[in-house]
Amino acid sequence: MVTLQELCVNGGTDDSSESTHRVEQTTTPPPPSLDGVEAIIGYEFNDKRLLEEAFTHASLGESFSNERLEYVGDSVLNLLFTKQQYFEYPDLSPGVLTRLRAANVDSDKLARVAVKHDLHRFLRHKKPLLEEQIRQFSEEIRRYPLHSNGLVEVPKALADLVESIIGAVFIDCNSSIDIVWKVFKELLEPVIRLETLKIHPVTQLYEMCQKRNLKVQFVDLWKENTSFDVLVDDQFVGRGSCRDKKEIAINRAARNALDNFWKLFHEKDVQC
C-alpha cells in the first residue's frame, strides 16, 4: 500500500529545480549594446552613464555598480505603487494595501519583468551560474503565470536590475515620479490587483487549520535532506524541499500540505 507520505514525497511537489546545478563552464558572450535598452523601455537617457551604471553588476569588480541605483529604485517603486493603489482602492484598509504593494514589488514579480522584456541580456556581470538560474526561473514561472508566492527560486540579480533601471530613470528625469510611472506602468504589467492577489501558502495553511482547531507543525529536516515536513494534528500531510533556500522549502511544504489536505480531512472541511 502506498502511504500518504510516499505520495507527498514522490508526487506531491515538483522539485526539478533542486537538481544539482552542473553548468558547463563555457565562455559567455558579451552583452549587447545598451542602445537596445532605451528602445525596450521607451525612454532616452540624458546621462548615458546612468544607463551603464544600472546594468553593471557588482560581480564585475568595476569602480561602480548598480547597487546605489537599486537602492533608489526600490524606494521609488514602493512610492509609485503606494500612490497608485491609494487612489485605485479608496476604501481598502492599510493592511490589504500593504499586501498588494508587497506582491507587486517583490523579487519574484520584478524578475519576471526582466525576463519578459529581455532586459537581463544587457546585464554586465561575472556570475557563472546566473544564466542557468535564469533559464530555470523562466521555465518554472510558466506554472505560476502571475506570481509563485514563494515557491520558485528567484535570481535576485534580475529583480535588482529592474530596480536599478527605475532608479536610473528617476535620477535622469530630475526625480519626477510621474515620468517614471509613465515609463514603467506598462513594463510592470501584469500588475497584481485585489482580485488576483493570492494568499501565501504558509499563511493559508495556518488560517485553514486555525478555523478547524488543528495544530500545524513544520519539521526541520534541512540538515538531512534540505526539506521540511508538515504535520497537522501530528499527521504527516506534506513535504517540500529546496537545495539553496530554507524559506522556499517551507513554502513548498505548506503548498504540498494544502494540496494533500483532503486526503486526511473531509473534502467539505477544506473549502475556504
Low-confidence region ranges: 9-26
- Using the coordinates shown, work out and report the CATH topology of the largest domain: Ribonuclease iii, N-terminal Endonuclease Domain, Chain A
Question: CATH homologous superfamily name of the largest domain?
Answer: Ribonuclease III domain
Number of beta strands: 3
Radius of gyration: 21 Å
What value does the average pLDDT take?
Answer: 87
Number of helices: 12
Q: Briefly, what CATH class of the largest domain?
A: Mainly Alpha
As a percent range, the share of strand residues is 5-15%
Please state how the strands of the largest beta sheet are arranged side by side: 1-2-3
- Helix/strand order, N-terminal first: HHHHHHHHHHEHEEH
What would you note in describing this structure?
This protein is mainly alpha-helical and 272 residues long. The chain has 2 domains: 34-196, Ribonuclease III domain (Ribonuclease iii, N-terminal Endonuclease Domain, Chain A), CATH 1.10.1520; 199-269, Double Stranded RNA Binding Domain (2-Layer Sandwich). It has 12 helices and 3 strands; from the N terminus they run ααααααααααβαββα. It has helices at 4-12, 35-41, 48-54, 67-88, 94-105, 107-116, 130-140, 156-172, 177-184, 201-211, 222-225, 246-260; strands spanning 216-221, 227-232, 235-241. Strands 1-2-3 form a 3-stranded antiparallel beta sheet. The longest helix is centred in the first third of the chain and has 22 residues, at 67-88. It is globular. The model is unreliable at 9-26 (pLDDT under 50).
